[in-house]
Amino acid sequence: MKAIKNKDKDCHNRTTRVGIKEIAAEAGVSPTTVSNVALGKTERISEKTVQRVQRLLEEKKYVPSMGNRLLSGKYSCVVGVMIGKNFKNAEAGEAALWIREVEKEIYRCGCYMLLHFAVSEEEILRLAMMWKMEGIILTGFEGKMEESVRSRCEIPVISAKIGNAVETELEAGELMGRYVLNYGHRSVCFMDDENAHAYWRGMKRAFQNEKAASVQVKYLQLPSDRDNRIEFYKKNLAREAFEEKLLVFANEYHAAEAMGYLGDMGILVPGEVSVASFGDDIFAPLMRPGLTVVKMNPLQSAVKTVEMLYALMRDETVNPGKERIELVLRDSVK
Predict the structure, then answer these.
(1) What is the pLDDT along the chain (334 residues), one digit of tens a residue?
(2) Under a CB-based contact definition with an 8 Å cutoff, are residues 294 and 323 in contact?
(3) Do strands 325-328 and 292-296 pair parallel, antiparallel, or not at all (unpaired)?
(4) 137 and 156 share a domain?
(5) What is the CATH number of the domain that holds 290?
(6) Which of 162, 179, 201 is the last residue of a domain?
(7) At what angle do helices 166-182 and 198-209 cross, to 10 degrees?
(8) Tally of domains within the chain
(9) Could you say which of 162, 183, 203 is where a domain stops?
(10) Is 104 part of a structural domain of the chain?
(11) What is the pTM of this model?
């Protein structure tokens, strides 16, 4: 009992949060008025009173509880980010950065993110009701589920892709294709760990638009599992390096990995084979030789996703804008 009393005493001696009653007494208003201002329910309160109470709330560093927000029935300031089973298709590092950027943007807009790995539509709907969410971002779900959630929710719902949008990847592929043509490369092997990747389709579209029948192009699927991918390199990389004069990888991590194995086999880059990649230019400048990339920033899509959701929440016109891509030439291609 003595230990418990001492613990209680220690708890009471800690700095306590300033309450609504204290702020109300200092402002000369009722506690209900302070609560309404803190929760943004200011329609029936004079501007002068709102400013006075808000000033005190800031000075006292008052933080309304989430319970009060939910009970108020108006604004929870919670945005749900629901991630489905297809999340595993994204690179883990890129996904973590994307989620962090989404959280930063949601917080910058004055709300809070509730991140959840959901397995069913009903689970998403239940959480949306439980937390009175203002909006939902879905990623990693099949199209049918996204459409169904959107039709059943009474709040804005948008779907997003971790990383760059497909349209941006198609454009990036076309840029790489034009680069291949302009620099005279006529034998290209594209490697990726996903079938029919948008980069690949964009490259082919560039070749078709230029009627480049003389360009020999090949697609090879890389194993997703790293151990299997290493075996793939051992069996195929040397042959592809000598048969194809340019190896293009869908992400710079795989390009760095492959260049390491080419070096181990004594195959010179760019002396005997050229290497290029798509990516956000993190590994590329550090590699030797430096890697030529079509540079994209996957965090752009995170910011645009939140901007689009907030536009829907405010009943404004959604303008997704355009993500920036650029070709960065380095020494890995001759």
Answers:
(1) 344 344 344 433 434 556 788 888 988 998 888 877 876 677 788 999 989 988 888 888 776 655 555 555 556 689 999 998 766 544 556 778 888 999 999 988 878 899 999 888 999 999 998 888 989 999 888 778 878 888 888 889 988 877 667 778 889 999 999 998 888 888 889 998 875 578 999 998 888 866 656 778 888 999 888 889 889 988 888 888 888 789 999 988 899 999 998 998 899 999 999 999 998 778 889 999 999 999 887 778 888 889 889 888 888 776 666 678 899 999 999 8
(2) no
(3) antiparallel
(4) yes
(5) 3.40.50.2300
(6) 162
(7) 50
(8) 3
(9) 162
(10) yes
(11) 0.60
User: What residue type is assigned to position 57 of the chain?
Assistant: L
Phi and psi at 28, nearest 5°, equal 75, 30
Look up residue 116 and give its two tokens.
């959840």
Q: Using alpha carbons, select from 147, 159, 151, 155 the residue that is nearest to residue 76.
A: 155
Domain that holds residue 181: 166-297
245 vs 48, 49, 152, 156, 187, CA distance in Å? 72, 73, 53, 49, 6
Statement to judge: residues 84 and 122 lie in one domain: yes
The DSSP output letter for 284 is G
Structural domain contains residue 197 = yes
Distance CA 263, CA 284 (A): 16
Is 319 within the bounds of a domain?
A: no
| DSSP alpha helix (H) spans, the chain | 2-13, 20-27, 31-38, 47-59, 66-72, 92-108, 121-130, 143-152, 166-182, 198-209, 226-232, 238-243, 252-264, 299-313
Residue with tokens 């929440």: 313
80 forms bridges with which residues in the sheet? Answer: 114, 136
Residues 232, 254 share a domain? yes
Q: Is residue 50 a part of any domain in this protein?
A: yes
